[in-house]
Amino acid sequence: KTYSKFTADYIYPVAISVHTDRIGMEYPMICFNGGRPEKDGTYSERSKYGMIGVITHEVGHNFFPMIINSDERQWTWMDEGLNTFVQYLTEQEWDKDYPSWRGKPRNIVDYMKGDPNATPDKVKARIEPIMTNSESLQQFGNNAYGKPCTALNILRETVMGRELFDHAFKTYCDRWKFKHPTPADFFRTMEDASGVDLDWFWRGWFYTTDHVDIELADLRYKRMDPRDPLLAEKEKRGDKSREVPDLSRQRNIDANLSFVVDRDPSTKDFYNSYDPLTATEREVAAYEKWKKGLKPEELALLNVDLHLYELSFKNIGGLVMPLILEWEYADGTKEVERIPAEIWRISDEIS
Description:
- The protein is an alpha+beta fold.
- It has helices spanning 2-6, 45-60, 76-94, 109-113, 140-160, 162-176, 183-194, 199-207, 229-241, 247-254, 260-263, 281-292, 296-301; strands spanning 16-20, 24-27, 30-34, 214-223, 307-315, 323-328, 334-339, 349-350.
- The chain starts with a helix and ends with a strand.
């Protein structure tokens, strides 16, 4: 039922799952799924979810490639990857806490970042793009199952949204059932049915070995200058109070050093006694005069205490992705903001 909801109607008369002691293998309308309990009837958590997962996956092959009949020898990901993705959707509808092995972005990180112990030029020596012939893959499972499944999950949840993705994906399945689609047919149908340009997504996820690594490169705090000398005085005094004391000055005071200006008052003048932080009458008068020339809407802005933060990001990993920010406010509330991937269209550095 779940597969049909996301793909196309199941038209075969039966779907048989044969319980075996090991492995899983699919054929039209019948599959063999391994995983036996202990002799006393008990079973481990791993055995339980492994059994559910392999049945879901192998029965799912009745859809990929038995209905949507792609060439699994040429493009394994169109068979195993798409099937693993719908398997993930099915598992998540089985139980909200289902421990899916593939599909969650965090589970593909170690594969996509490569070998951290290798030299810089060899970090990704054992990784090929998804769009690589099956016979040339070094890490078959991650390349043909895990990465395509994760890519489609991210496309659904973060890039397109569930409603639009599900419509486009089902359109692909309906359009190409009992036919022989190629990768181009899948890419084109997803864009055609959704009306969304996804060239950048296919290029990054399917044709490169780039990974997601977005750096928060800089953070700047800004606020509007109200030009109020009395307010400026208050802020300057606050800044002054937070200054780290000058070590030489403090030690001279602690040593009761006799200063020249104290021994001989004639060396003092106006500048020894005035407070440079105090707003002058002239400054206050000039400010009041300036305010009178403002429009009502401009005057209203002076009373808005805005705090501005400028964040600068760099795309280090190379894979173009939406920018996801979580804002945490002083009252403890949080807000997630998702900025579309188009923000990177001009440069790998943005603010």
